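Working notes for the structural subgroup meeting. M.R. asked for a predicted model of this chain before we commit to crystallization trials. I am recording the input and output together here so anyone reviewing the notebook later can reproduce the run.

Input as submitted:
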Amino acid sequence: ITVTPMQVALMIGAIANGGQLMKPRLVQSIEEQGEFGAVEAMPPPQVERDIDVNPQHLAWIRDAMRADVE
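Returned structure, recorded in token form:
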């Protein structure tokens, strides 16, 4: 199986968001402001689609991911 880094990020995001696959957003510009900077004109998040998956399965995956980094 071949996947792109963007596809992996979207998959992990869908797991974190309870099965909601979000539409990717690109930042149009960055305005320097303070130590970390501030994003200017960020479009609002949009759900691309809901993935039909058992919420308990998502919880197990999230728990396993959390345990992996602890």
